[in-house]
Amino acid sequence: MATGRPIGIQNLDREHFPVSDRSGRLLVDKQLRIPGHEGKIWALGDAAICAERPLPPIAQAAQQQGQYLSAAFNAEAA
Fold this sequence. Notes:
The protein is an alpha+beta fold and 78 residues long. The chain has one helix at residues 59-77; strands spanning 26-28, 48-50.
């Protein structure tokens, strides 16, 4: 969430932000969108997991996801 301050995943309402497993990672779709909040809220890195294409919670995956989201946001803004 782009609020300018970090928000701990453990503080999110689980009814509106479902988690996928014991690790507490947020469930996202292939476009890193949180179901039910498409186009409004995204999650990436070790805070998120996509059931269709799970990636390990490592820096390289988070960097790739960040690059993907950056390109998607720039394309949408253009």
